[in-house]
Design a protein that fits this description.
Keywords: Signal. It comes from Candidatus Limivivens intestinipullorum. This is Lipoprotein. The protein is of the alpha+beta class and about 180 residues long. It has two domains: about 40 residues; about 130 residues, OB fold (Dihydrolipoamide Acetyltransferase, E2P) (Beta Barrel). About 25% of the residues lie in helices and about 35% in strands. It is built from four helices and nine strands; from the N terminus they run αααβαββββββββ. Strand 4 and strand 5 form a beta hairpin. The chain is elongated and about 70 Å long.
Length: about 180
């Protein structure tokens, strides 16, 4: 009995020590909060202003099959990020991820239909790419893709312009694939 209590105590202390090491330090937290505040409007929604060239993601040369890019540049210039809930030819619905500065929440697979979504339309000039993200290093490799690669529950980053009705006209869509 005494050994089980000691073992439980040791396991709890070990878990607490491991979880403490997973947090961010104060400087990282402040920087992230300031960056997020700069990217959002007072009501908490992302907004875009200015010309299309200011809002567009760095477009990669699609003639090559793969290209490495900076992860921060891709994430900071997206107009919308989230999970695809429905798709048709020429458009799809995206359930936006919710980011409170410390935690990013996405729709659970299969639950997208019950959540509020944003319509994304695209034309033939829209660039589709798959972003292979190495989780350990943050290295991103872009690869050419097509609209047919967008499926339900696919994580996407959308670049383009927000229309007056709230719909987004995409100039570029990144399909995220994480490699662990």
């Amino acid at each position: 009995m005494r050994h089980t209590k000691t073992a439980k105590t040791m396991i709890l202390l070990l878990c607490a020590a491991l979880l403490t090491g997973c947090g961010t330090n104060g400087k990282e937290r402040e920087t992230t909060s300031q960056e997020n505040a700069a990217d959002t409007s007072p009501d908490g929604k992302e907004e875009t202003t200015g010309s299309d060239s200011e809002n567009a993601a760095p477009l990669a040369d699609t003639s090559s099959t793969e290209q490495s890019v900076n992860l921060d540049d891709l994430l900071n210039t997206a107009v919308l990020r989230g999970s695809v809930s429905d798709f048709q030819d020429g458009s799809f619905q995206v359930v936006p991820d919710q980011d409170d500065g410390q935690l990013l929440m996405s729709a659970a697979p299969g639950m997208e239909d019950d959540m509020e979504s944003t319509k994304v339309s695209y034309g033939e000039d829209c660039v589709f790419q798959t972003a292979h993200i190495e989780s350990a290093t943050g290295t991103v490799t872009l690869e050419a893709a097509s609209a047919s690669d967008v499926k339900k529950s696919t994580n996407v980053y959308v670049y383009g312009t927000v229309q007056e009705n709230g719909e987004i006209h995409a100039t570029k869509v990144l399909i995220l694939r994480f490699q662990y």
